[in-house]
């Protein structure tokens, strides 16, 4: 290779690095504005945005998987702490179900989209071509990695502030979700749309176990016909399960 060719190659390489640096800086500014957090150590943010596919040709290069592991635990602690404060009278099972709503993959994926992580996640060209940046699992992992990065960079209080800021009022979110997903209310609408005279009844069949670990079994009856059964740690939970099963039966016809 001639000297001129080598010099041209070096120039192109420097120019590409410069373009990459500018893009990275723009991405960092974008995500810091979206998240409401400014990193002291930008390398942590860069790592949080690095999908495993990005370094396929260099498998020893780090990705966001370790941060994802850490962020999952920090996210769980933030949610547990907040829900414990909001619902002082609720038991462990109820709090766990509420926490599971916010920690579920589909919810975190939506959160990732709202933060714009799909626009700046670093992936292989093949993954990008196949819309891997929009894959729910990718977005879920990126959110958890971001939480982990903020925790390492600024401590638990900053991670806590950011997570609550991103989600908003947890109590309002849960109430909205309850109205949308309440299976007993949905079943009532389905039944009344077909026959306003039919009544829905929930009959307790079984109540077993010690006080701290009860198990309830209920039968759901529409009119005079038993349609489904549900089991849960409370009568309300058992009735909800029975209603969900009844909805599935009625929809399938």
Describe the structure.
By secondary structure, this protein is mainly alpha-helical. The chain has two domains: 16-178, Ribonuclease iii, N-terminal Endonuclease Domain, Chain A (Orthogonal Bundle), CATH 1.10.1520.10; 183-252, 2-Layer Sandwich (Double Stranded RNA Binding Domain). The chain is 66% helix and 10% strand. It is built from twelve helices and three strands, in the order H-H-H-H-H-H-H-H-H-H-H-E-E-E-H. It has a three-stranded antiparallel sheet with strand order 1-2-3. A hairpin with a 2-residue loop joins strand 2 and strand 3. The protein is elongated, with a radius of gyration of 25 Å. The model is unreliable at 10-20 (pLDDT under 50).
Biggest pleated-sheet summary = 3 strands, antiparallel
Please count the beta strands (DSSP E, at least 2 residues each). 3
What's the CATH class of the largest domain, please? Mainly Alpha
Q: What structural class do the secondary elements suggest?
A: mainly alpha
Rg calc: 25 Å
Give me the secondary-structure topology.
Elements: H1 3-35, H2 42-48, H3 65-86, H4 92-103, H5 105-114, H6 117-120, H7 125-129, H8 136-154, H9 156-167, H10 170-181, H11 183-194, E1 200-208, E2 215-222, E3 225-232, H12 235-252
Antiparallel strand pairs: 1-2, 2-3
Helix pairs in contact: 2-8, 3-4, 3-8, 3-9, 5-8, 8-9, 11-12
């Amino acid at each position: 290779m001639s000297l001129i060719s080598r010099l041209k190659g070096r120039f192109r390489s420097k120019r590409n690095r410069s373009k990459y640096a500018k893009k990275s800086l723009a991405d960092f500014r974008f995500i810091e504005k979206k998240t409401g957090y400014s990193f002291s150590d930008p390398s942590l943010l860069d790592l949080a945005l690095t999908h495993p596919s990005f370094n396929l040709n260099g498998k020893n290069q780090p990705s966001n998987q370790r941060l994802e592991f850490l962020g999952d635990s920090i996210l769980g602690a933030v949610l547990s702490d907040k829900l414990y404060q909001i619902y002082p009278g609720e038991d462990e099972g109820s709090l766990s179900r509420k926490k599971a709503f916010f920690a579920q993959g589909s919810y975190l994926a939506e959160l990732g989209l709202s933060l714009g992580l799909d626009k700046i996640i670093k992936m292989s060209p093949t993954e990008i071509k196949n819309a891997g940046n929009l894959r729910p699992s990718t977005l879920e992992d990126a959110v958890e990695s971001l939480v982990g990065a903020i925790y390492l960079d600024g401590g638990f209080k900053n991670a806590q502030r950011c997570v609550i800021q991103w989600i908003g009022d947890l109590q309002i979110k849960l109430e909205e979700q309850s109205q949308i997903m309440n299976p007993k209310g949905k079943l009532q609408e389905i039944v009344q749309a077909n026959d306003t005279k039919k009544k829905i009844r929930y009959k307790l069949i079984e109540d077993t176990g010690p006080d701290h670990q009860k198990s309830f079994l209920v039968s759901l009856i529409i009119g005079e016909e038993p349609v489904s059964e549900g089991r849960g740690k409370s009568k309300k939970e058992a009735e909800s399960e029975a209603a969900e099963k009844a909805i599935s039966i009625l929809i399938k016809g």
